[in-house]
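Protocol step 4 of 6: record predicted structures for both targets in the notebook before any analysis. Target 1:
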Amino acid sequence: MLKTYRYQSLQEQDFQRLLARNTDPSHSIQQSVTAIIEEVRTNGDTALKDYTAKFDGVQLERLYLGTEEIAALAATVGREQQRALEIAFANIHRFHETQQRKERAVETMPGVTCWREPRPIEKVGLYIPGGSAVLPSTLLMLGVPARIAGCKEIVVCSPPQADGLINGYVAYCLQLLQINRVYLVGGAQAIAAMAYGTATVPKVDKIFGPGNQYVTKAKSLIQGLTQVSIDMPAGPSEVLVVADHTANASYVAADLLAQAEHGPDSQAVLVCTDERLVNSVQAALATQLAVLPRAAIAAKAIANSYAIVCDTLDEAMAFSNRYAPEHLIIETDDCERLVRKIVNAGSVFLGHHTPESAGDYASGTNHTLPTSGFARSYSGVSVDSFVKKITFQRITTEGLRHLGPVVETLAELEGLQAHKNAVSIRLD
């Protein structure tokens, strides 16, 4: 069950211990991932097939599925499940299409006009985790904003099932997104394949998608080794629930377990102002955990999680901001009052009737979010993630008369005569 701490009793070293997660103190993960990246860079498709046999237990003759195979798998999906995926697709699309905004041009001084225009990143790679849970929702969360942004090429990698195919639900999402090929590659080797390119897997300009610690480490290393960028560090999932005496213990327990069942390295944290609530949540966790199909996985994550009892909601929010959770749920009657106190969080869920799983699947917001404290400096995936903003400027003759002397002076004080000359020759 959850280990419990009192906020007022915590020393700085205790905070540091509680805030640290998904670390690699012995650098064993980094060493393994570095070796995988180099093997894929050197041996391409051969390495990918070898790693698929080693890690997924599948011998592949071909590293991808095409249009006909995707269609056949999608056809196995029942109409109820199709409809649920279609509604999720529509809601995600509706939310993200509002993010396309044209910025106005600004005349910074007479005759000097500046503006920005978005351009889609041409080739993007989407990593869709497999493992113990297949995540078609992640494909929608990444594919929809990529389509809205207008990316020219969308490369999808996902590890194969035991039969060498992909899940029918993922196939149906590929059809919704009009993507006609999926590469049967998972783990750190998929990240390396998209970063360097192989005979089969195209090289991309930016890589998106969550994963385990190996995938996350591969993304961080690739960003330093190549000219390929990444969306963010998005590793094992986490949730922090802020609650008070108005919270329903069963709701809180369900929200904690919803994250815990992702994987044994997930983390679920309860920060509340009522110690009695902690006891009630502990009891509810035991009851709900007993009937979960993924109980063994969730139990390991809960064992790695904890509760903190605070005197006030201000203390609770202070801890939340230090933790910088991927998902922040505020289960209080006056949740709106606490919104202004939120500084660091990936995605926020307000009130007793807003479970985090709604955002995971179908409310419309994106579930690809920064983890491990990176919400202090990263945002979740959006349409902006799939574009770059190019700045433009146009200066008239009048504008150069106004601005030129300023540039000449600044260039001179920095000792850059050629910069000054580029202006002076025009003014003359």
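Target 2:
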Amino acid sequence: MSGRLREGHNGTGPGAITPDGCAVELYERLPVGDEPDVVERAVPARAGVLELGCGAGRVTHSLLRRGFTVTAVDESPHMLERVHGARTVCSPIEALELDERFDVVLLGSFLVHAGVPDVRQGLLRACRRHVADDGCVLIQREGEDWHENVPREREIPGGLVRVVSDVPVRPGVRSVHVEYVFPDARWTQTFLSCPLTPEAFERALTEAGLAVDAYLTDDRTWVRALPLNGRP
């Protein structure tokens, strides 16, 4: 373990486990998705990016190769050891207080669906604190059917990802259990997720001093938000 696990979160498998149940060695193996493409289409070339919850650098490294300057933030020093070529900051996102602001703040990995409302607002306030007045915040949301059709599985290079269970634990909060299976190793992660309607999502942004500018993908999972006038 790399730290005390958060309530409702757990992880098993080889290597260090972060407080939210992520296995560091697993996240080194997982392929990057469409995140770098979304960022590249949505923001100016070579922009300065603050990546919140960078993990082992899946997205970080791809953004660096595309010419972006990245400051990568994660609460796990074990994750940050895997990040190369970027400035790194070890801190919980909610507590981050950098004396600077950025062209782009990136909050991926569905972190906005934190199971505790105070945590979600802390994440969004950190985005607002660190975005330049003429900058933007890119946020990854869950898809509308993300909590349906469980169990399900999909192939990834060299292995499988299985969403084994997805059950309510209290009003508006679900516990999701995922398995990652490779020929030589197996990991699990259990975490809390709060599904958000578009209205609830946009209300949370407003409370943090942000507003939706555009939904960037057809499935509306990627959003560009802009800072409202005045700081929260």
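Step 5 preliminary note on target 2. The chain has two domains: 1-21+147-194, 31-144+196-227. Residues 1-21+147-194 form one domain.
Proceed to step 6 after PI sign-off.
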